[in-house]
Amino acid sequence: MTPDELLTAALRYAELGYPVFPCAPGDNKPATEHGFKNAKTDSDQIERWWSALPEANIGIASEGLLVVDLDPLEPGQANTWLLAEPEKLIDLAAAPTALTPRGGRHYVFRRPAGKAWRCTTSRLAPKVDTRTDGGYFVVAPSRRPDGAYQWVSGLELDVPADGLPEPPAWLAQELDRLATSANATPKLANGTPTLAHVATDGGEANAIPEGQRNATLARLGGNMRRFGMTGAEIVAALRQTNQDRCVPPLPPREVERIAGSVARYEPDAISVALAENHYDQMFAEGPEGEQCNNPDPGPMPDELLRVPGFVDEVMRYTLDTAPYPEPVLAFAGALALQGFLAGRKVRDAMDNRTNLYVLSLANSGVGKDHARKVNARILLETGLADGLGTSFASGEGIEDRLFVQPATLFQVDEIDGLLLRVSQSKDARHEQIVSMLLQMYSASSTIYVMRAKAGRERTVIDQPCLCLFGTAVPKHFYESLSARLMTNGFLARLLILECRRRGSGRDDTARSIPASILAAARWWADFRTGGNLGDEHPTPVLVPHTADAQAVFRDLRLRADAEYDQAQNANDPAGMAIWARAYEKTRRLALIHACSAQRERLEIGREAAEWAGAFIEHQTRRMLFMAGRYASESDFDAKRKRLLDVLNEWREQHGDDWMPFWRINRKLPWSSREHEEVRATLLEQRLIEAQTSATGRRGRPGLCYRLQPAVSGREVGKA
Fold first, then answer.
1. How far apart are CA 673 and CA 678, in angstroms?
2. Is the Cβ–Cβ distance between 406 and 457 less than 8 Å?
3. Distance in angstroms (rounded) separating the CA atoms of residues 569 and 254
4. SS (H, E, C) 582-602
């Protein structure tokens, strides 16, 4: 964050009609004489304030608003208000929602006319405050020493106050009661919501011991799902049961994972799992009573590689003409192509666009170039070949290309090489490419201001649509990721799909592009939207969503928010960055589904929302697992993981037999010192064993390694 970002944000809030004032840098204390009473929407005054104090945080006077402020009960402990009433939590999430540095939340509503509410402190519940007339709240991108304020993706404060929702009826009634109760005390005698034992009524007398917690919670969740409870409701209930009955309680993130796994069953399908007692196997606890934070969900299921209409047609054609058919590559190429064709032409109700960064990971020889060739042929035959790019020479090159062609599809091979150069090189040009990709992704719904050039005025690109279809070798890609790339938002913006084994080869692959594919591509090429200057400044068509789709989106958002909270509580910045983008990517994919399935009657329905949600949830979990297994924070960490991988591969073939060091040294030709340092660390972590035995060359005694018998493949990945 830079001082310019703070000033820009303050001016943006003021333009929406919210009076702002500066707070002390790194704090929430007012920096003006009269605090929130000095709040203004006057841009000149705001610029004077931030010119004098460039790093000032931003405060907004809450007059005319109602801000519900939830703080953690204790550091690192989520607030338990309304956990037993998840439908009320869903009501709160209809408002702009901010995450605070200490793990709390702000929900921003419009105060209904005629309500004389006052600010409250812990009167609704412990650590639950409200702000209205006579108060203020601090907003993003303000920072404190323990972190930054940030809006939940898709729930930003980006509308004037009259566009905000009013608080739900139940909250308004409670605030009315507090306002009229002359003798109300901070601790309500009978008004605070009671946290009931939702899943069972046993309480502390019916404790769930270590070794049975996972399976028991899963069975309870399964029963709730059988009766039609949503994922959000199951999460809330299992959290409470875990807190009240599990001895000791499981980590919150593990409870979220159990609830999410159960919620993926349809209510009528859960009975089979209950009857056959799948949960004792699915959720058996390991030696320490916990499972891997990021378990492996496996490759993308075939049923999720389906989008009706144009995407399916292009995918089938790509498979029919590939020397070695590979469904993931064909699907990824078709998805990126549809995103490009609809770029700058459609948007959803949250102003999401169709620009995607799709990455297919495949080993050499699988035929990574065929899907790119198909896309190129389709665009050539429909007069859109000018929109193709093949490489990233520099950040400036990307910028110049988008200025000439605001909608561009870059098809880039071996993108892991670029990322490796970013991680290891000191050449700023490589870093600039990633920075440019980040900026272009986020600028798709606004304008991108180009760099200034000597003798030329600064120009802008209105709503750039940069679509990326990249390929790489799986292991090389993940090993190229640095900790910074995993937390700066780049990895979070990617849709990563991993190919499987190479399909059977064939010779008869020549086919003309079907007329229906060319007709659909030409339809999008001819599609024109409104705007002052046509394509230069378009006004994209709004694609509406049905009420059923909105209900699905709401549930998906809550699940993604819960995952983000757990990553934050676990101090997992990579998990936070990736889950923060999950809901946005879900909305983008649902929009593309609508464009593919029914381009002449655009609407986002329940099918599109459910498919996009299932796709992103699976893809996100797989990405986190793979990044945890291969990505490294340092060169030493990379060596440590590499040795564990070698030993895990050995055990898959030889069981618990010892692996001779000379075999390891062939695979990992490091120096003696490097081997000693890595071995010592893994021995201290009790992940491997080592001994000297007569298994060296020609039977001579030699050093041998093996994984500790209790170490699982998942723990190798987690390490």
1. 9
2. no
3. 12
4. HHHHHHHHHHHHHHHHCCCCC
> For residue 543, what are the CA distances in angstroms to 265, 315, 357, 546, 598?
29, 24, 21, 10, 11
Question: What average pLDDT does the structure give for the chain?
Answer: 82
Among left, alpha and beta (phi > 0; psi -120 to 50; other), residue 714 is alpha
C-alpha 667, offset from chain centre: 35
Q: Are 352 and 588 in contact, with CB atoms under 8 Å apart?
A: yes
Angle at 388 between CA 387 and CA 390, to 5 degrees: 150
pLDDT band at 712 (very low <50, low <70, confident <90, very high): low
CB 706, CB 688: distance < 8 Å:
yes
In whole angstroms, what is the distance from residue 337 CA to residue 331 CA?
10
**How many other C-beta atoms are found inside a 10 Å radius of the C-beta of residue 597?**
21
Cα 548 to Cα 168: distance, rounded to the nearest angstrom:
20
Q: What CA–CA distance (Å, rounded) separates 115 from 120?
A: 14
DSSP state of 456: B
What would the pLDDT profile of 615-669 be if each residue is shown by its tens digit? 999 999 988 888 776 665 556 666 787 888 889 889 888 888 899 998 898 888 8
Verify cis geometry, omega within 30 degrees of 0, for the bond prior to 248: yes
Q: Is 515 helix (H, G, I), strand (E, B) or coil?
A: helix
Mode of pairing for the β-strands spanning 208-209 and 460-462: unpaired
What 8-state DSSP symbol labels residue 30?
Answer: B
User: 346-347 and 688-693: which strand pairing?
Assistant: unpaired
Q: What 3-state DSSP class applies to 470?
A: strand
Rg, Å, the chain Cα set: 28
Q: Quote the tokens at residue 529.
A: 């939207």
> Cβ distance 433 to 376 under 8 Å?
no
Question: Tokens 């599809």 sit at which residue?
Answer: 409
pLDDT of residue 183: 36
Q: What percent of the chain has pLDDT over 70?
A: 82
Q: What is the pTM of this model?
A: 0.56
Using pLDDT thresholds of 50, 70 and 90, give the confidence band for residue 329.
very high
Tell me how far apart the alpha carbons of residues 293 and 571 are, in angstroms, rounded to a whole number. 12
3-state helix, strand, coil in the chain (%, to 5): 45, 15, 40
Burial of 615 (0-12, 13-18, 19+ CB in 10 A): buried
Q: Is pLDDT at 8 greater than 60 in this prediction? A: yes
Six-digit token string for 561: 């928010």
Q: Return the bridge partners of 110, or none.
A: 65
Q: Which residues of 520-543 are buried (b: 16+ CB within 10 A; e: fewer)?
A: bbbebeeeeeeeeeeeeebebeeb
Instruction: Give residue 536's pLDDT band: very low, low, confident or very high (50, 70, 90).
Output: confident
Scan for tokens 């705007």, then name that residue. 531
- On the question of pLDDT at 204 being above 50, the answer is no
